[in-house]
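Write out this protein's structure.
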Amino acid sequence: MGGHPILLPWIGCGNLEIVKSCSLASMPSKDPTPLPKPQSPSGETPASSGSRSWWQAQRENLLTVVLALLLAFGIRTFVAEARWIPSDSMLPTLEEGDRLVVEKVSYRFGSPRRGDIIVFNPPAKLNFDGAYIKRVIGLPGDRIRIANGEVIINGIPLREDYIYAPPDYSCPGERCPGVPNQGSEFVVPPRSYFVMGDNRNDSQDSHVWGFLPEENIIGNTIFRFWPPNRLHFFAPPKYPELLPEAQVLGNTAR
């Protein structure tokens, strides 16, 4: 080979020229000293070592389960959760048995919008252990009346193509005990909302039990994931008939 010579370590068979012809007979006949076997820690038997490994594996499994539960709890509490519809008060938008995703993040940074479908804890006076789902109709500061099958916001009738049927009651009025029965209209208080079911004539909502406090709101419905043939993302409807100043009134009266 060209270049610099390669120096091989000495292995006990003469000079470098006869390395290849070195016979087994010239190698040391004594067996090499065996490596010592690994020893268990002082006082620990193989059985106890196996037991410790088993408990260590179970501890890791338990830790994984606990972390998964904490993560699921955190997501459900602060981010989103699944809900199902037990009644027909939101027909035709939502049907009984629908499964929904309700997000809880947006209302930490902003307020509910008109038309949002929200999930909330009903007022304590209803003594109901569960959640309601309705649509936001009146914002804080809005002047509202319901007459002749129309919901009128700040003097302008809403165009609502999502309802099952027009309301057959008037507010204020005897069939609208949730709001003060005086004058021709009522005003939504600060930090409160007027919510209604899309099935207007078969819904226990604000026209029955009153205004919804803001702190009772759980979240906003964003997606229907069941049944598969009715998958749908929800966005608040637009109300072009409402004047910009009417929307500002609702938002600034908080």
